[in-house]
Amino acid sequence: MRLWFARAALGGLTGLTLSAPARALEPGKLGDDAVHVDVTNASSVLYNFDNRDTKPLDVQTRVNDRWGMWYNRLNLQASWGKLTAGVRVDNAWFYRSPYPEAVALDVVENKPAFVTDSDAQLFRQFHAAAGAELSNRYINWVYPAKYYVGYTTRDVEVTAGDFYAALGRGFVLSVRKMDELASDVTVRGARVTGRVNAGPLKLRLSALGGSMNPLRLDESSGRYLGVDASVTPSWLAVTEGGMPRAVSTDFVPARPTLAPDRLGAAQIEVAPKGLKLGTQASFLYRQDPLSKDVVRQADRILTGSQSVEVADFDGHGDGYVEVALQSLDDADRDAGSASGELLGGKKGYAVYTALTLIEDPVSFTFEGKHYRRFFSLLANVDATRAKEFALVQYSAPPTTEAFWVDTEFEGFNTCVTGGRLKGDVHLGKDESVFAWVGHYRTWAERALNERCETSDANLNRVWDLATGMEISSQKRKSRANVTVGARIDEAEETVLGATGAATNLFYQETYARYDVIRWLGGPFSLQLQGWHRRRHQVVGGPEEPWFEGQHLTGVDWAPHLSAAFGVEYSTNPGVPDTYLNGQVTYKITSSSSVSAFVGQRRGALRCVGGVCRVYPPFEGARLDATVRF
Amino acid sequence: MRARFTVTAFVSLLASACGTNRPDIPDYLLKDDAGSAAGYPSGPYAASLNDKGLPIEDIEFAKGWLDPKADGYDPAKLVSIRLSDFYDPDGSKGHELLMLNTAAGWCGACKNEHEGTGTNPSLGEHAAELAPKGLVVLSGLFEDGNFQPAQEKHLVAWAKTYETNFPFVLDPTYKLGTKFAPKDVAPLNLIVDAKTMKLLLGTTGDKSEVIWPFVVGELEKRGK
Known about the structure:
With 629 residues, chain A is mostly beta strands. Chain A has helices at residues 2-18, 60-63, 100-109, 119-133, 236-239, 294-297; strands at residues 25-30, 33-48, 67-80, 83-96, 141-152, 156-163, 165-167, 173-175, 177-178, 183-198, 201-214, 217-218, 223-224, 262-271, 275-285, 300-310, 317-329, 348-359, 362-372, 415-426, 431-442, 460-473, 478-496, 502-521, 524-537, 546-557, 561-570, 578-589, 592-601, 604-608, 611-615, 618-628.
């Protein structure tokens, strides 16, 4: 029965993927205004084989093998005059998942010879552990992921339901979608924005509030965030209506992995000619912490900032400065709370600046930061039972580093002073070279150091250097971007490396990144893309430096077809050394496509602008279809 | 037509993965041969970090040192250690709090905890300072630097490197943390009342700002 249903459902999906309409529906008019309806469906069917990370005596690396999911996102949007409305319904259906019994049996059958525990003991331990681990993974859900109603005029914008929001440069509030990290956070509540133009003076006022709404399902692990009545008091019961619930299983009782946070925020932007002044503040109010860290223990976090932006230095660049303050309080402090010095005592602050100077053919960009006890607004999730969601946060203080940097360890950005200067020289219309130098002094990398004690004992000095070029030709149909760089991170005091030897080196890396597109004539082009790194992580890494990287060779047959073959590798002794994959994408229309991915990807820490998450290795097949009706 | 065939074939391949793979369990594996030392608190036992107030199960480790430094980190002196060894209902052992800690060779935060970082004292320094007030620290090494189960040689190397001066056990099956947290969020730290073996606080990751104020506060509450 299960097999039949799976095939029927997937057969239906197949039919869906091959249908090819690509126009918005216009069912008719109401009054003078036409009603537009837009329907987009994104479907993914994936299957995970054994991803080759299985370790002896380990549950985690077994439960991520041999599971499959159909994940569907149906978007309905309608507009009529000044009104818009939309709903996104997500459903996940796991057509295959591991059983605790199979996991425990596999552990017992493959136990190392030096383990003295009896088979029955081992089975009992690992059966319970696998059961608990699977209690919030691979569970079918259908839920309203996002919904909203909006009213927009030239002067006023009102939204009820889900919306993204960013105030300033991310210190106060930044909730958005990050596809690279499978993160999509919105505020579920209401927002009002008003604009006033009084001669040369422009005024913009925004106020918003609601409960925070992260995406509940992580498609790379099949884990979900669940709530229950204990964390949905008063109006949270409304905003959490229809959302995934914590469930009890044979192994664990129902326990929430998310306690929805409430947030209110406001912003005033005044823009006299050539200048923009912004005052913004947010107040995060939350429930008892599901994870015992300093930021999540704070049940009231007030963050405010003042920004000044000069949009144009008479054609020679622009500038931006933002100063932010933050106060963490734990009003109902109980046993197990962090000290009052952190919660309710010392305030945190951050100063950030971005400056661009242009004098053709040279331009310079400088980003600087000075942060003390300034924390990202982490969501109240159970980071132990739902570690994939530990990255969910509602603010993102700028790192001033290249967006891909994934080597800011521990609390690097919470207690740091430094900046990055980048220079570009345009050698011609289509050629430019660039170089940057970044230097940071952080006191929160060897340990979290939430107090931000800036003694030399806590200090790490980081240099980040890079140079590269950008070239284009054939009317930009061909282009190349190449960067080579290095990062040297040294602790002021010696640390003990993997061999037990004392050293000041904390982390070191050299790397090359490239993205080259060569037009081959007609509709054909060739793309080469890669990132190759030599890394040495003294604390917590392998004994020796290791190489890792990826290369992708792609062919594009515009406008419909593209194919790519990827190779990834790592010499880190803890993981397999080679990964191969292939992907084909067929674009039915500009907004509808089908793509298939088959192969392997290595596990990695992926970061976007300082927000990071660990992805497990993947080995399997995946079919994605996006169809706009 | 060709595209339809290709997609159908691909989806059929995926669909073929459907079905059950739930295995039967041999009877001998269902035998419950675990038990607690006589007099140890009975269950139900804590099974998650949220189970504050429930006692910790009496876990047995086949190999460990009660005093690694005094034993010269000698593998020949490894002995079997149980959590009930630290159970002190009448205060005769002078134990007030038991801190259970996990460590692994790949875990930077664990190494920092055992080495001490910057202005943070090491676990050994905390243990030595608070032992007279009734704190006992027990740490279990569960994996080496390559994510493989820890063996004797890893236990010896770790203890020598960090000059471990508190009870230190080999825990290749991750008994200490298996109910409480996945390995990859190490270190796990559990604070347990030695008089009742009840869980008082559980944390994962670097939480020194939470753990030590709690331990000191809890000992002060007991007049220590």
